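User: Predict the structure for this protein chain, please.
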Amino acid sequence: MIRFAPATPADDAELRALLRAHSMASWVTMAVEREPSFFGGMNRFGCDLAVIARDGDRAVGMFVRSEHPVHLNGHPVQTGYLGALRIDAGYRRRVRALRDGYAAAFAAGEQGSSGFCYTCIASENRPARRLLEGNLKGLPRYVEVGEVIALAMPRVRGKVLGHWHPMRPDEDAAVCALHNAAAASRQFSPVLNPMTLVATGADFFVCRDALGKPAACMALWNQNDYKQVVARSYRQPLAALRPLYNAVAAARRQVTLPRPGQAVDQTYLAFLAADAKHAPMLTELVADALAMCRTAVLTMGVSTHDPGLQEIIARFCPSHYRMTVYTVAYGDPPGLDGRPVLPEIAVL
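Assistant: Here is the predicted structure, written as structure tokens:
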């Protein structure tokens, strides 16, 4: 019988092993790892609970339920995000095990949280999507609500423009208000407050208007010390052609592909927002952020409905990674009013 229990530091090595062993399939198979400590990256935005599944003494699965504040239909709500879902291959068709696991995930929700969760799955991971969309008896219902594209942009495409300045301590409330006013137009976009802002550990910057007030904000968030995205393998023919691809990409100032087993040297461009006057400057603001980045790659999430998406792609020639966003609920799914879906990928 499989047992589910909250993970403790004593489970750290097994949790990290599960993350290393189970990758996300796409054109590049990637593993999201947490080295050297699984718990080193916990509670950076909201409250995280890791649960480990054991068959006897053997660890056979895990998940993390994160409770954090997001916007839903323009209003702040506290809801759960299901992440780091890893299941040994031999247990993925055991409906009882899946049923018990999801029951544990929903039971872990905090009082006052919404009755549903949301999650993201690599759009090209067809086996996982078929399984979870299958509406198996006793499992929560997965409803697709949109798609997010992670854009990995090369630092060499940056341009120093002088728009961004470090946020002053007395600007935190203004930055949160600015961010939330813009984020309310997106589903599952984060709700910032001064406490969550500090807890991230990210470096926040502002672009000030003529009166010296924040008119745009963003964070450069390097998580490499506690969370890594590791390339495990590539599909053919890319696997064989990777050295040639990298030579051409370097010459064209594009992102090169890490060798199998190597982590992406990246920083997240997170919590990007601007007022109405500065919103048309988005591409310039991204170019300036790229110039400030200290890693080879700057990664940001955009909605497939973002009107500036094509301009960003044309200017920065990023690599793309598509993720499908789902709501997960036992009852009726939440009613969404048609706003584009854009969770902050840096907190997932």
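The radius of gyration is 20 Å.
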